[in-house]
Amino acid sequence: MQRRLRTDWQLQARMVLTMMLLALVYLIFAAILANAGAGLPTIAVIVGGLALIQYYFSDRLVLASTRARVVPESELPEVHEMLARLAAMANLPKPRLALIQSPMPNAFATGRNPRNAVVAVTTGLLQRLTPDELEAVLGHEMTHIHNRDMAVMAMASFFATIAAFIVQNAFFLGMFGGGFGGYGGRRRGNDNIGLVILVSMLVYAVSFLLVSALSRYREYAADRGSALLTGQPGHLASALLRISGTMERIPQADLRTVQHANALFIIPAAVGEGAGLELFMTHPTLEHRLNYLRRIERELAEAGIHGHRL
Known about the structure:
The protein is mostly helical. It has eleven helices and four strands. The radius of gyration is 21 Å and the shape is globular. The model is unreliable at 175-184 (pLDDT under 50).
């Protein structure tokens, strides 16, 4: 049965607003750098080039960093069939499937658009979830693809690292070609380095909070999309509980190898992730996600929706 997921206009508005606010923050940042005598053309070329690489090759970079291997349809045929069915229901191209050799149960989606999308799953996920739970997780990732939030998150997260780049290289940039005063204004450049570092740290903090807020909402949106695709929010809730409960038994060494991709995973690869303030988290707490799924379950029950019927 073909099913087109509805456009989540709240998510779309939040993504646009986040990118606009980030753009404003970095325009102000650029103006301060220019006033401090920074070599903005050099910085712009470096950052612009890296941004293009991030946009066009983000899926390959993520897959390489997590050691994910794209598998053909002859391998894991049941998972391929599940992905194909969900894609057809959502009126989307079937994404490629990648496998990560890790005992940690988890999954993520990447790619700049639905035609270039990849859904990656770990061996731990395939071993621990029931077919219904696995389908719910894949429905969650399919919703990320439908919402195109992977590309927005990749770019937003990338620009949030620009300030960190400036902080790490402030002294180096000050030694060459007009960066923070250059040779002709070394004393002025040294005086300005402290200001630039302070502003960079502030910009990074603001960017981090904006991106984290967007990341949390996109997880809620993907949870809802999975519930609508499968018609069974309880299956996703069960999967989240199983994944979260298993995470505590995974060796820390295995978790550390993939923690850099935490924002992409359906559950962060970290023990006790929900213990801190949600304001600083990339995902809603498990408790909040389960409550949200219960509310969706009640809504579907009142509408008489069951299974794959919507």
